[in-house]
Every structure is written in structure tokens, then in C-alpha cells.
Amino acid sequence: MAMHLSSACFSALSERRVPRVRAVASENVTAEDDRVKLGGSDLKVTRLGIGAWSWGDTSYWNNFQWDGEIRNYSNVFMMTICLEKTADRKMKAAKAAFDVSVDGGITFFDTAEVYGSRASFGAVNSETLLGRFIKERKQKDPGVEVAVATKFAALPWRLGRQSVLGALKDSLNRLELSSVELYQLHWYVPYEALLYRGIWKINSGYLDGLGDAVEQGLVKAVGVSNYSEKRLREAHTKLQKRGIPLASNQVNYSLIYRAPEENGVKSTCDELGITLIAYSPIAQGALTGKYTPENPPSGPRGQIYTPEFLTKLQPLLNRIKEIGEKYSKTNTQVVLNWLIAQDNVVPIPGAKNGEQAAEFAGALGWRLNSEEVAELRALATKIKPVTGFPVEKL
């Protein structure tokens, strides 16, 4: 997943294009089919991963406020105790999400150095939690293999290849690992104030850092996130000159947010052999069917998935439910399978607890047929798409 920034900060420069998307139609899928190589790299991961953005987070996924029971305390001592209990409960839920995922055959986890704000009291960095969960699991099951993907934050004061290596080593320390499977640039530098220094020069330095990380054995594969078609081609070409494949581009992609099909990102990934990693694949819960016009999501998500939008979404949700009943699958499992059926796509839904993780695993081992894939896209096309992450349009 990516950080959310205001779309007012960036300009939309991409053109809409007619999507060219391949679909796989098969109801019988072997275990080996549920593993996929990331781009031209040698790294092979499960066809569906788990996003760990919510692990340790006390902001976006907690509606930027304390839990209800915490707000009831005016006494600092009692509030501190309650905070500790809340953090412990959420940590146990995240640990259950990790263990249930691994038990269900999902061993690809995506995190980032900016997940879990250090500025929020009670927050624990997502990388720290993931590293802890891996260590505890390996103590019980030494043979378990977990593929970790994390990301470099292109912050304004980070201006060179050494900043990438430095941030990566900090991430490895938090994860308690000597290397990770995939390291990604979290977003393309959009800072207009740095134009005079040459934006591409700054991003070029970041790409040099990715290449250095591969050559130093700190990562097995490298990728980018929220990159437009133009930036994706530039990154691919630069790394290719060093003999290093660009393994992935992580972007917002779901049944109701299909910008990667329309702005050339999906077709470019297919053309260049770059895997598209889809964050927000269930539209932050909007496609699960749990929200209705009478019961919209709270917090920041409620500003996106409004009662008006959810009213227009109901016909699509009803059809998703009907198709799910045919396969004995939930709405969530159907929409994740729809993404897998696009080919060259690895969805990474966020699992906050074991129940969600178990449901996600049910999206594997079967396939929607081509008629169902096309029908769902046709229904979704009638709905005005939601706002995505604006950096991908630069």
C-alpha cells in the first residue's frame, strides 16, 4: 500500500487509454499455479500477498483518533494502562493475521518504513512487528520461508543512492533480517521545489541505490510503487543497463479503481515483464459488502466511500455476491480472484486479524471464468471511479 497524500498537491498528467487486459479462465488451479515470479527476477512469491500497512498504525486505520474506551479516561495513568491493553490487543490480532496467512499458504508480506508512525503515541513500526512475527514463527518452524517486501520513503532530505542504502539497512535492523526479498521505491519524487536541481537526477540516484542494494546482496529483487507509465519505462531502462530487472510496480488497483488499465501502467507492466502489485485490492473494504448507504465506513474512508457512492455500488455488489454463491466464496474472495485473473497481478489486501487472513486465503486455488471476469468489469465501468493515489499520475 501507499501513503495517502492530498490530490491537490499534484497535477494529473496522464491520458486515459483503452485497456488491454488479459484474463485467465480456469476453475482448476494447482498449488504451483498459486506462485508467481516477480517480473524478470528469480524471486517467486505466492500469487496473493498480505499488506501490513495497518500493523502498528494508530492513524489512518484508527480514524486518526483514540479508541472509544480510551477517550473515556481523563486520568493519565488509567489512559496509559488502557493504551497498553489496546496496543497489546491489536498486536495479537496482527500476529494472528501473520500466522493464519502462513498456515493458509500465503507467505508474501508487504510493509514499509513509514507504516506505523513514530510520532503517534502507542504506534509500533510495521517492519518491527513483521520481523518479530517472523522470528517467533521460525523458532517454532525453522523451515518456514517468508518473502518480505518493504519500501524506501523518498523524503525531501534524501538525495542520493547512499540514502537508499542507509534506509534499507535501517529497515533490515527493524526487521532483524540480513536481507529482504523485495525493496521498492515508495513513490516518485514530486517536489516541484526541487525542479531546479533536476527531479530525474534525484530519482535516478534512488534507482542507483536499488541497483547497489542488489549487487551488495541486501535484496533479491527491486521494484517501484505509484510509478506512471513514463516513469516506469525510465526506471526499467536505467536498471536494465546494469543487468538488473525491475521486478514490480505497486499501484492502487481494484475492480472499482482500474486506472492502471486506462493510463498505460498495466499494459506497460505486461510488455516489459514487470509484475503489478495491487494495493487496496478490495477498495479498503468497500467491495466486501460490509458497508451500505446506511452504514458507510467511518473516518477518512467515509470521505471516499460516501452513502451516495455506496448506493451506486449496490448492483455490482449484488452480482459479486451471486457469483460468489456459485463458487461458495465471499465477495472479498471473488474480487481478489478477479484481480488474479487479470494475469501478471499480485493483490496484497491488508489483514488486521486472523479472520481476515483466512478469508483472503480462500481467493486462491480457483479461478473465475472469462465471462464472469468481463461481466464484473462491465458492471464496474458504470460506476464513477474513486480517487486514487495522485503520485501515480506524475
TrEMBL record:
GO MF term list: oxidoreductase activity
CDD domains linked: AKR_AtPLR-like
Name of the featured protein: NADP-dependent oxidoreductase domain-containing protein
Domain of life: Eukaryota
SUPFAM superfamilies tied to this protein: NAD(P)-linked oxidoreductase
Native species: Malus domestica (Apple)
Record flagged with keyword Oxidoreductase: yes
Domain NADP-dependent oxidoreductase: 93-379
One Pfam assignment: Aldo_ket_red
GO cellular component labels: cytoplasm
Keywords: NADP, Oxidoreductase
